[in-house]
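Q: Hi! First time asking for a complex rather than a single chain. Here are the components, and I think there are three in total. Is that enough to go on?
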Amino acid sequence: MSGETILEAKGIYKSFSGVPVLQDVRFEVRRGEVHALMGENGAGKSTLIKIITGVYSKDDGQIYWEGQPVEIDSYQDCQKLGVACIYQELSVIPPLTVAQNVYLGREPRKGKFIDYRKMNEMTQALIDKYDFPLKPETVVDHLGIGQRQLIEILKGLSQNSKLLIMDEPTASLSGKEAESLFRIINTLRSEGVSIIYISHRLEEVYMLSDRLTILRDGKNAAVLEKKDIIPAKVIETMIGKVVDESAGSKKQLRSAPNAEVRLDVRGLTDKSDRFRNISFQVHRGEILGLGGLIGAGRTEVVRAIYGVDKAASGEVYLDGKKLDPSPKNSIREGIGFVPEDRRGQGFIPLLSTTKNVALTNYDIVKTNKIFGPAGDLATAISDSDELAMGKRAIESIDIRPADPEKQVGLMSGGNAQKVVLGKWLMRDLKLLIVDEPTAGIDVGAKDEIYQILENLAKEGVAVIVVTSDLQELLRVSHRILVMRKGDIVREFKNEVVTQSRVLSAGQGVAEEAEEIEKAEEGET
Amino acid sequence: MNNINWGKYSKPMILVALVVALTVLRGTTFLSVGNIANVLWSVSVIGIMVCGTIFVFLLGGIDLSIATLCGFCAVTVVEVIHYFHDTGLGLFVGILAAIAVGALAGLFHGFIITRFGVPAFLVTFASQSIFQGLSMVVTNNKIVSCTAPAAFTAIGSVKILGFPLPIYFMILMALLSWFVLRKTVFGRYVYSVGGNATASEISGINVKRVTIICYVLSGVTTAIGGIILASMTQQAAAATGSGYTNDVITAGVIGGVSLLGGEGTVPGAIFGAVLMGLLNNGLNLLSVPSTQTGLVKGLVIIVAVAFDAMQHADQSRKKVRKVVKKAA
Amino acid sequence: MKQTTLRRLISLGLLLALVILFTALSGSRFLNANNFIDIVRDASVTAIIGVGVTMAIITAGIDLSTGSIMAVVGMTMANIYAYTLWPIPCMILCGIIVGLGCGLINGYIIGKLHVPEFIGTLATMSIFRALTYMIAIRDANGVIQSQPMNISSYAVLGYAVGYFYFVVIAMIVFVVCGQIFLKYTRLGTEIYAVGANPKAATLSGIDVAKVKMIVYTIVGFCCSVGAVFTTARLQSATTAVGQDFEFNPIAAAVVGGVALSGGSGDVVGTLIGALFMVTLENGVRKLEMNTAYQYVIKGVIIILVVMFDAWYKGRMDRIAREKGAKEGVSA
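A: Yes, that's all I need. Here is the structure of the assembled complex.
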């Protein structure tokens, strides 16, 4: 089935502002194979793919296509070679038909006019060849996400692509849609098309791939043949076999005994089925880590608790009081929320540190009511008090530059994140929810942010940390819940937990991994 | 601190340059007190209106119905005064009615925009036609003159300390609007919603309510502008206020209000209105007919907005360059 | 297909309802062959310019300067008419070149300078109008005159052959060509792509700025043709040509189902919309109502249609999402 090498990348080096991201990476794909690419967040998967598709330039190394050395400087270059990338964010045009999308910009023409009959026939031929559940004349508007993804694949195939790159293709697919995609991938393979399959989901990789390349910290960790792809082994390879406590791959979880329940979530269920029947509690002074793969429903759960999105059913109690979740109510009751997309949702780029910090706190900035009912819109702000709050935030968590008038949009990621956190520190909080708190932040600022969370916990605040960074999860959590496909599948509490156990739980391969774990402990 | 914000100082400099240029070109006429009072008088209506529409601009919205709503409010106040002229309450009721009309119009805009997610320019574009039609229906397509009561005509013409009353109204409105934007929680929310609506929502701000209030404020100041305009000219017609949409937008844009939202101040907008008055007046003194000032105004809008848009594009490009640099 | 067909039926239904309403109210004064010929004639200029405006709206843009472009074009031709002995076709050609130039300016401001469409064309609306005044024909005292253009070789453009006015023939040509252009050429498809998903369009190698510039230049062309027929019919050119006109083609497009969010609609829909708008004006006139009601009714109808579209789109999106999630690929 699999034959000669079609794509080979050798000795690839790449660094961003001095930080090496890829070091001497070798990657090879054969004709007609499904080659999976795995690694933790930040292992360098997407950088490697971006180099192959010409989005980034490489620092060093050479790429060979069908044995010939090639330079790929743009996405167009890689398309010409016969490589197509199926984008995570879909790039289909909804009001056009399937055929129009497939041949966009390359429509067959009779004279000056598009030859629709030929175009539809060509599309139909492709569809028949690979047996896709599509019709050329359907308007994309009416199709689901899975079908739209197939159009992208079809587009690649119509350009006679020999290699398709799929980056987390099942991330937004329903179970049925995913199954259908897997069938199609198998068909493509039997037609001699090669596929690079990037996924966090081990079960898919296990089921589909002929070979698997694992990256760890920007280096080749392993290339496994089909027979060697064993979930426990893969996880171990991804994380690295460091059983050293200080490296943060292992931790003894400790929950304080008899702490009062702060947050009680009962049977929370999403409208669009991204999570169901979620129940858990968080105690005073506890940092609860919420782990799992991206797309497992963690962000959606915390957004529903805070009230940004409304849940279909379920209840949320804070200190025994039932909440009606909405951002406004949550803030009033003492809940803070730091969203994952900092620039898009976290702060107002044009406004200063002071005004960003004060935004949720005008009920405590000294104000003079002009008229109307308590607080709210028609109150005058004491500028000096507001400025004092800005300064207080800057001092208490060391925001730099220490200029309360500095526009947050011009600050570094770490400092902007401190501003977003800072506004909650100005209030009496009962619960703080942080979603990917250190994404894109340098190491120093990370530690400071962990320190802030730990200090809050000491003061009795309950903290929920959603993170995809396993090291971070172990570092900050007192207790860990792992979500998978919209359900809480595992709780780690008062026990020794390792990165691999958490990852295994998120992957749904818990038993085997834990057996290995036990075996290892037995050895030592 | 070494980053001097030239944008901040460029405006007064433009003003000074313009005054100097016009003074040189036209000698003493331009700098006379009478002429300055004249300029301020002529911009006062625009100044008053921009005090309200600035809220809409700050949200990144727009109001294209300013001109015809102004006309309709002028017609309303005049017609109501005529209707109630026996009772002596005409002026009071008329002003109330006109302001109510403006507020309702704003409420209508805000409701449609927030409830249906229809773009602001389209809603206000359509309603501009409605207001024009209503004015024409009410006036039967004629100019309605109104010279009594004296209190009404006084609004637009009485002079205090050599300056006509509307100038004081403009200053009062500017102070009010400045206070609301600069000093109240609502003002903070307006900047925040205009700067990042999603983040504002997460920060517990009722974005829809803030939006609706902004459009109502725009409607109210447009109504006040209409009342004063009717009083100044002692008449009202469907055409009253025509051309003011562009004037108000231009004033805001000259004054540094970004039509993309989130940036701008009331002093800036008032400055823009005055600058535009000077421009009109100066062009007028230079015998450029008023029909052609539209050219200058249009160019100003394009240059200013293109500059904003380029800066935005530049920032994202810089970011790309940073990444590329990092990559290199 | 179903969704767009339904929307087309709604536009036609609105038009039909209006015809029935006016027939019921004013009987044969409204419902007669001559009146229908008038309606089609009156709708022609709106529909011609609507062809261009439709394309602008499909790219998720708008053009508020169409009336002013008409005025500049009309006044350019008036100047040539008054001060030169150039042949009429040459005069028309010059007018069209000016129109193309105005459109290109809009396209540049929008495509290259990234000024939002409605702001940019709002500004050029006043710029082009001011230019019209600047080149207006004046008498010895400098007072602006309306320039008669009644030479028969030009005025003939306002006449009819049999039942068909030239302007109606031109309109048919424009609508047919416009529809073919949008549906059967690459550029047409690109216009839809740019409006529906500019990011995806760029990824597919489409130059978004270029497409926008071409579209606004087409609008300029349509406006200049509209100006030719308008001045030929009036047999004169004034600075008021096209005053408040910009409203009509946009209203026609909206009623005809061209979504302001971009990416959908077509020229035939705009033609139906133009007929609707003119039927409304005509009927109000025939009922001897105050013509001012037209403005109110037009505004209300646009808002209602836009509200309906917003509601309808939200509903369809939700249904599509739920369907997609439930049935999966195997559907």
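A: The two ends of chain A are 43 Å apart (CA to CA). Let me know if you'd like any chain examined more closely.
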